[in-house]
Amino acid sequence: MKKLLIATLLSASSIAQAHITLDQPQALAGTAFKAAFRVGHGCSGSATHTLTVHIPAGFTKAKPMPKPGWSIEITSGPKDAIDITWKANSRESWLQDAWYDEFTIRGQTPSQPGPLWFKVRQQCEQGESNWAEIPASGTSAEGLKTPAVLLEVLPNEHAGHVH
């Protein structure tokens, strides 16, 4: 029984690190939110040098947190689309495959509850991972090879209430 539990935990751990996740996967609607994107590995063993987060519609006032050794670029596109990119300034700042780090954005959640999907492009010394798959319905990423990052925006009885 103990061996089965350990095997299950190890299996769940490898699945949890198989993609980019949020440290807090839920937030209340209409509130300020700090989205820390967890990067647990590179691309097929190769170090990460660039990470781009596509800000979904409804997540407003997005501001990236600086990282020592990395530069930040904010790109605006059609229909108020925003991409935030962190790029390592030198090879010494690359996120090695064996290392873990977080890339953080602060912003405002939408006023309406529901799933919010952040597409993330991870570029590495050899190759890249485009974490952009969104399920056709629902919020389960089961079966997706490169799922986008899900933030579940929950109902907030105080959203829009002024004190």
Order of helices and strands: HEEEEEEEEEEE
* β-strand amount: 35-45%
Give Rg in angstroms. Answer: 17 Å
Question: Domains counted in the coordinates: how many?
Answer: 1
User: Would you tell me which CATH topology applies?
Assistant: Immunoglobulin-like
DSSP strand count:
11
End-to-end Cα distance, whole Å, is: 54 Å
Mean pLDDT: 87
The poorly predicted ranges are: 1-17
Helix content: under 10%
What brief labels describe this structure?
163 residues; mainly beta; Immunoglobulin-like; 7-stranded mixed beta sheet; 4-stranded antiparallel beta sheet; 11 strands; disordered N terminus
Secondary structure elements and pairings:
Blueprint: H1 2-16, E1 21-22, E2 26-28, E3 32-39, E4 48-55, E5 60-64, E6 70-76, E7 82-88, E8 101-108, E9 114-124, E10 128-131, E11 149-154
Parallel strand pairs: 2-11
Antiparallel strand pairs: 1-3, 3-8, 4-7, 4-9, 5-8, 6-7, 9-10, 9-11
Outline of the structure:
The protein is mostly beta strands.
Can you put this structure into words, describing what you see?
With 163 residues, this protein is mainly β. It has one domain (19-154): Uncharacterised protein YcnI-like PF07987, DUF1775 (Immunoglobulin-like, Sandwich). It is 9% helix and 42% strand. The chain contains one helix and eleven strands, in the order αβββββββββββ. The strands form two sheets. Strands 2, 4, 6, 7, 9, 10 and 11 form a seven-stranded mixed sheet that branches. The chain has a four-stranded antiparallel sheet with strand order 1-3-8-5, with no helix packed on it. The chain is globular. Residues 1-17 have low confidence and may be disordered.
